[in-house]
Amino acid sequence: xxxIIDFGSQVxxxxxxxxxxxxxxxxxxxxxSAEAGFExxxxxxxxxxxxxxxxxxxxxxxxxxxxxDAGVPLLGICYGQMTMCVQMGGKAEPSDHREFGxxxxxxxxxxxxxDGVWTxxxxxxxxxxxxxxxxxxxxxxxxxxxxxxxPYAVFGNVERKAYGxxxxxxxxxxxxGAKLIGNFVHHIAGLDASWTMxxxxxxxxxxxxxxxxxxxxxxxxxxxxDSSVAALLIHEAIGDQLNCILVDHGLMRKNEAADVMAMFxxxxxxxxxxVDASDTFVDALEGESDPEVKRKTIGKLFIDVFEEExxxxxxxxxxxxxxxYPDVIESVxxxxxxxxxxxxxxxxxxxxxxxxxxxxxxLRELFKDEVRALGRELGLPDSFIGRHxxxxxxxxxxxxxxxxxxxxxxxxxxxxxxxxxxxxxxxYDTIWQAFAVxxxxxxxxxxxxxxxxxxxCALRAVTSVDGMTADFYHYDMEFLSRAATRIINEVRxxxxxxxxxxxxxxxxxxxx
Length: 512
Ligand code: XMP
What we know:
Domain GMPS ATP-PPase: 195-387
Subunit structure: Homodimer.
Distance between the termini: 44 Å
Protein name: GMP synthase [glutamine-hydrolyzing]
Shape: globular
Number of strands: 18
Number of helices: 16
Mean pLDDT: 91
Binding site for ATP: 222-228
Structural class: alpha/beta
Bound molecules: xanthosine-5'-monophosphate
Number of domains: 3
Strand content: 15-25%
């Protein structure tokens, strides 16, 4: 096990992810409880994360003395390097300006940390962040790399197996960072790449059992990968203490509710109730065109329906959610200041307080691709695992302008044809997310010998890694032409199709 001591960096989870990618198990503990964590876990190596503090401030956080006394291999990152420097007998001081961004490190000396990745004399891009800077090395340490702004960008003591770096190896903007972390855990700490998703599954199950005890859990299943994986995992942990509810809000894709029910009934034996609340939702949205009002209305109704259903099964102590790590980081702004609400993302927020429930979020530490790997491990069919994301508020936010039953029906048909064409062309897995949007504009056309005056349908497709940034998908024109022709021919109410060529930013993936 690798112990990661968290000093409050926004990207500490990325360190954990890189260690997992290197096939090594790790746990993160906040610095306040690091001493107990170190005792309990007895790690083979320790990584000290970055953080917002300065070692010069009185009362700034420190790593427990035990990790230095025990002689375990150490890697200090950013603030972690500073506190390591100070605690091992060196000196650091605040520098006048904080820097966060691209920098280049010049490799001054070969060492086990750089093995097979960097060699002396080379220059490599890294993502730098420094507030403090090292002014005196701890005894036994030497400089291994420097950058323009940081003469001690990397230092280390090869004998002691202790290294510090001022840049962040865990972020993708340090292209070789994952390999450096791999070197630390494999070559320096001598750990095998033996940790797998199967092991994660076992640990997650044990943790769920411990948290839930003999309490009752309810889970809102959307049919998406995240909530499905969370439900399967929890079911494996606590069996029928879990009840799942699928709320059909009338804003789903064509056949969606039926498909999801069939998949779960066929493969799994999880108590799952389908609640048809489509009239309630669609009536409440009828004519509403403000995107935020739509989102809030849906969020509130969802909580009402869910509360009602939970009451029917005699209440619950826990609410399960498929919250992922990016949902957690996105909710905190990078600067620590209040972040602007771009969209009120729909989840079951508000419900736990109202019903006095605790949250069970077994995927909170994982990224989307890790959740997919876990889903595979749990035996979810590939067709299910590879599904594009679908937003909680569903088709309501793909009908800009007033939502009506008629428009939802038109959109559902166009969307189904579009996705059918994407699958036929073999593009479904290459595209991150694709969908149709029904615009509240009618335009003139000519079909047969008659004039038409019907809606415009916009097609959207994006590539992305995590949904936080995205590029529009570059179709070939033949494909677009085929999809457009089919939609116009087969869907009553649409006589024009356009393609959205906006990336994110400046656009968002959804239109509302
Ligand atoms: P945006 O439109 O913000 O979307 O670029 C990023 C990703 O999030 C999905 N999305 C949502 N997912 N509830 C969800 O569960 C929501 O309210 C919601 N709004 C957007 C969107 O489909 C895309 O994958």
